[in-house]
Amino acid sequence: MNSERKQKLSLKRCTDLPGPKAKAIVERDKAVLSPYNRPFYYPFVVEKGSGCVIEDVDGNEFIDFNSGLGAMNVGHCHPEVVKAITEQCKRLLHYSYTDFYYRYAVELAEKLGEITPGDFPKKSFFSGSGAESIEAFAKVARWHSKRPLFIAYTGGFHGRSMGALSFTASSPVQKRRYFPTMPGVTHVPYAYCYRCPYKMKFPDCDYWCVDFIDDFVLKKYVPAEEVAASLIEPIQGEGGYVVPPKDYHKRLKKLYDKYGILYAVDEVQCGMGRTGKWLAIENFDVVPDIACMSKALGGGISLGATIGRAEIFDWEAGSHCTTLGGTPVACEASLATIRVIEQERLRENAVRMGEHAMKRMREVQETSEIIGDVRGIGLMIGVEIVKDRKTKEPGGDMASAIIEAAWRKGVVAIGAGSCSFRIAPPLNISQELMDAGLDFLIESIREVEKDR
Ligand SMILES: Cc1ncc(COP(=O)(O)O)c(C=O)c1O
Fold this sequence. Notes:
7-stranded mixed β-sheet, 4-stranded mixed β-sheet, globular, single chain, alpha/beta, binds pyridoxal-5'-phosphate, 36% helix
């Protein structure tokens, strides 16, 4: 790390990693909690967080480069969000809005209608998670269109409940032993240009991946008039932080409009200002018919939203409901989060810091054999690690080795896809913390490259 920066930055370091308290919790955890994703990462045992810094149970501090899996866009324990939650806790914790009424859900639905793209009336359904926002999308799309089928994309991640899992296609481990999932979803290749599934080159391909859907899917075996919707991540998250080319979504939307197929976007990870826009799809100048949101939407409290053109939500009362979706506390936390993003101009900061981080990583790429690709919009940046830049042979375990080494230095980053890692800190990260986190990652890349 730049020595001046090192002097200025004083992240607390109290023990070796993992420290004794962390080790003890990991042992207790093994006995009583399901394994989840943890085998993929290092033993980071978090205790508290403030802004973009998180502290482990032994008192060691780290820069958060994954925003609590994408949920903490305004940083940890933002005072405005904490205040809104605390005040709401004294007023009303729960009283299901799907059976009665409360202003908190109305206010949030109104606000989401205002900030999401599309100059038309919109309606929202609130739930408790990203997967549930997808479940609601699938059901309302079927109900409204009276069509049973869907198109989804390879590399896409949409959650793990049986309906949402049917759309997910980013790793076999997510689906192994769970078939049969919900029938009716056909997957087509996503525009992952660095590793084009058709082995073509952009722009010479002229968006063949879009024409393929028309010529070889809809005209051959998936009757277009029976397809309710296409569900797509505007920028893929779990699949590797994959950014499609500028006109991809426009071309897709045009294709689906031809057949009356709804354009639904999964904004669970890429939404809420992360790319500098409220919804990532806005970067591609497309207005979706439906958007699914969660993670940062609730400012740390469980919340999912399925929002779309008002006329789509024409299902009969009782057709879809949930008890603890859109609780008053979650709605107030969400409204406070939106206020903070607006008032502190965090979308602008995301663009500024994102461009800075991409520039630095691209400079390193020039002298590194193992950085295959640096891509992203705003603070949704993926760095793909390869064994060889010419052959693009995937980097195997090198991405994990890099993020583990970087954690030992003081930044908590996670992987994406098979061999990429993410740079996705809270949107209010300062240049100082951004540079320090990047220094840790860059030093780790150099070490892993030297030792391979
Ligand atoms: C794009 C996307 N959609 C849906 C989900 C599922 O959200 P949840 O884990 O809240 O069910 C995720 C979670 O990572 C996601 O990244």
